[in-house]
Write a structure and sequence with these properties.
The complex is a heterodimer. Chain A is an all-alpha fold. Chain A contains eleven helices and no strands. The two termini of chain A are 21 Å apart. Chain B is an all-alpha fold. The chains are: A mainly alpha, B mainly alpha. Chain B: InterPro entries: AA_ABC_transptr_permease_3TM, ArtM/GltK/GlnP/TcyL/YhdX-like, MetI-like, MetI-like_sf.
Chain lengths: 291, 214
């Protein structure tokens, strides 16, 4: 980034440095002004009054929030494990040498990547009358499993051709080549992208809110709509969002860290390590033919 | 089949709602995303920080949480707008973070020599970015922007649960009228496929017309 960024402008001389400093001061002032305005609005509408924050000192409310967080993490854990398993199965299908199997897997993957995850969740919830947790986990598994299948496939295909050829020339069988040569390298190369996809799954557990699954947001809403506490909606948002966003950031940073580590690793020299970018751009039909 | 024919206007309204949300939020996301990408490569430090913070926070925010905060939170500050406008704001801001990253990586694919040549001609930062680098970056970012906008169209389904008219919300009245739930969902799915496949086709055309030939 730095090379291109500096290619866009000359190394500033003394006068430009002064000019940039003024721009910087101006921009900072504008940003601080907006922040101050938001803070003013918060105070002006009485969001920091003790009345609105009192409920958070109660044991029951704290337990409710923690339980919501635990439910969110439970849904995430289940969805993560199941979608990794489904992704592995679908990737095997897509890499299979049997044409019907390959077509079936391709159809499955393409359909569930093109559907909004919420449509699947609602379908399971409304049409199959499932429990909220089951509906949420099923929807997340189908969607993330399909995306992960593509990630795994790209990983396997990103391993240099010579590796596969060498393995075959040593007399290994198809399954041996896959299990001993391609998968260990492909998985290492794909690890950052896989963890990034898990961030998407963690973010999407919040969809459980819409089908009344008792997760973190739902717990927040229960508190926010309680008349006894003077409807502390903004305080609830101020408490919930840092925790939720923080959890996702932690996982994203972990993905980036793994990516940096794997790029330095000699064990991945035969495969190109995927960037830990937003997996959002892997979704959708146009994403299918991207490298 | 009956579900669709009997409720043609209901489905039409829903589909139109989704299309509206998608188009308007896309425009907002593209504008904000390009602006933030510009900020992220700017020579002014505080703008770079703003761009980075914007992307880091919004990319890690669950969209439902953002909808929750914007649609139910902003009215508490006396800002009362139609729910659809709020939904467009939330969707657009959320997607702009992804667009920003796509555009920034597009800027990085433009050879360094292009930027150097531009500034050796005496162009300022805004000129070399706007006249030389971004037009070339645009050619390489067409496919990933298409994928991001498809994700936006799919994400717009969340708005339905916040009383905005859109396609997924159609299942509720149909369910109450006693139609087969499975079939009403099949047609909703078809509607979403129409939207996503249209975007995909549109970007294929754009790519053929302007994309980088490899």
């Amino acid at each position: 980034m730095t090379t291109t960024a500096t290619a866009l402008y000359d190394l500033p001389g003394p006068r430009t440095r002064v000019r940039h400093r003024w721009y910087g001061i101006g921009a900072t002032a504008v940003i601080l002004g907006i922040l101050a305005w938001i803070a003013y609005l918060l105070f002006d509408t009485g969001q920091f009054e003790a009345e609105k924050w009192r409920p958070f000192a109660y044991q029951g409310i704290q337990d409710l929030l923690l339980e919501g967080l635990a439910n969110t993490l439970k849904a995430f854990g289940l969805a993560a494990v199941l979608s990794l398993a489904l992704g592995a199965v679908l990737a095997c299908g897509r890499l299979s040498e049997h044409r019907p199997l390959r077509w079936l897997a391709t159809l499955f993957v393409e359909f569930f990547r093109a559907m909004p995850v919420l449509v699947m969740i609602f379908f399971v919830f409304v049409a199959l009358k499932a429990q909220p947790l089951t509906a949420l986990v099923t929807g997340l598994t189908l969607y993330n499993g399909s995306v992960l299948a593509e990630v795994f496939r790209t990983g396997i295909n990103s391993v240099e051709r010579g590796q596969r050829e060498a393995a075959y020339s040593l007399g290994m069988r198809k399954t041996q080549v896959m299990a001993n040569v391609l998968v260990p390298q492909g998985v290492r190369a794909m690890l950052p992208a896989v963890i990034s996809q898990l961030v998407v799954a963690l973010k999407d557990t919040s969809l459980g809110f819409l089908i009344t699954y008792e997760e973190f947001l739902q717990a927040g809403k229960l508190i926010a709509t309680n008349l006894d506490y003077d409807l502390p909606f903004i305080p609830v948002v101020l408490i919930i969002s840092p925790i939720y966003i923080g959890l996702c950031m932690l996982l994203s940073w972990f993905a980036n860290w793994v990516g940096k580590r794997e790029r330095r690793n000699v064990k991945t020299s035969a495969a190109e390590v995927a960037p830990a970018g937003p997996s959002e751009s892997l979704s959708g039909p146009t994403g299918a033919d991207r490298p | 089949m009956d579900v669709l024919l009997d409720n043609w206007s209901l489905y039409g309204e829903g589909l139109w709602g989704t299309v509206q949300l998608t188009i308007l939020a896309s425009l907002l996301a593209l504008a904000l995303g390009v602006l933030m990408a510009g900020f992220r490569v700017a020579p002014v430090g505080s703008l770079r920080t703003l761009g980075t913070a914007w992307v880091t926070v919004l990319r890690n925010t669950p969209l439902t949480l953002l909808f929750f905060a914007v649609l139910l939170g902003l009215p508490r500050f006396g800002l009362v707008l139609p729910f659809q406008t709020f939904a467009i704001l939330a969707l657009g801001c959320y997607t702009s973070a992804f667009i920003c990253e796509v555009v920034r990586s597009g800027i990085n694919t433009v050879p360094v020599g292009q930027g150097e040549a531009a500034r050796s001609l005496g162009m300022t930062f805004t000129q070399s970015l706007g006249l030389v680098v971004l037009p070339q970056a645009f050619r390489t970012v067409i496919p990933p922007i298409g994928s991001t906008l498809i994700a936006l169209a799919k994400n717009s389904a969340i708005a339905g649960s916040f009383s905005v008219t859109e396609l997924l919300g159609v299942y509720k009245p149909l369910n109450e009228m006693g139609y087969s739930i499975v079939w009403s969902f099949v047609w909703i799915a078809v509607g979403y496929l129409i939207v996503t496949l249209t975007i995909s086709a549109l970007f294929n055309v754009l790519e053929k017309r302007w994309g980088v030939r490899r």
